[in-house]
Specification:
mainly alpha; 7 helices; 182 residues
Length: 182
């Protein structure tokens, strides 16, 4: 039963993303908006992966920055670390987004064909739906490996992409020193 539910959730996300892309593209007679949304979600996914796999280095830099330049109490230091991590995530995500947008959109604008708007926007919507699904998978995998280690969400365990992504993430063990976690 959980297998059917997991596939239904993935298909539902995919269909909503396709519908949204086609609707916006037909409304504007252009696939640019759908492509920008794809770049936005893709930049979030890439940023999530980079931050996840380099969190030990990033936390080390943030911790050293806080310890060397500011004198806060332990709770304030932790709050400041969270704020700095959020800022790093936001800046990196925006950088990836604008890099993708500024390199690809001018090329697409020149080659855009109005006859195939529905076809192209459907493909873009399907890719966007897959990226959103991967973001959801990464959130669940991160939860399962941290807070929910003893209470795992096993809804998508029967999907091979989820299992592959989970094994890649599980292979990356992050070891944080006490200095970074205090």
């Amino acid at each position: 039963m959980s297998e059917i539910i997991s596939y239904c959730i993935c298909i539902f996300i995919l269909l909503i993303a396709i519908k949204d892309s086609v609707k916006k593209s037909l409304y504007e007679y252009s696939i640019i908006f759908a492509l920008e949304r794809l770049f936005y979600y893709f930049s979030i996914f890439i940023t999530f992966l980079v931050i996840y796999f380099k969190v030990d280095i990033i936390l080390n830099v943030v911790t050293n920055l806080i310890l060397n330049n500011f004198k806060f109490g332990p709770i304030t230091e932790d709050v400041f670390k969270i704020i700095l991590l959020m800022c790093i995530f936001f800046i990196f995500q925006l950088s990836v987004y604008f890099l993708l947008r500024n390199t690809c959109i001018p090329i697409i604008r020149k080659r855009q064909n109005k006859k195939y708007i529905v076809f192209y926007s459907s493909i873009i919507g399907a890719i966007k739906g897959m990226v959103i699904t991967l973001i959801i998978f990464m959130c669940i995998i991160t939860y399962n490996n941290t807070l929910g280690y003893y209470n795992k969400i096993e809804l998508f365990n029967n999907i091979s992409i989820y299992n592959n992504l989970s094994s890649v993430v599980a292979d990356k063990k992050v070891y944080l020193s006490e200095e970074m976690t205090e």
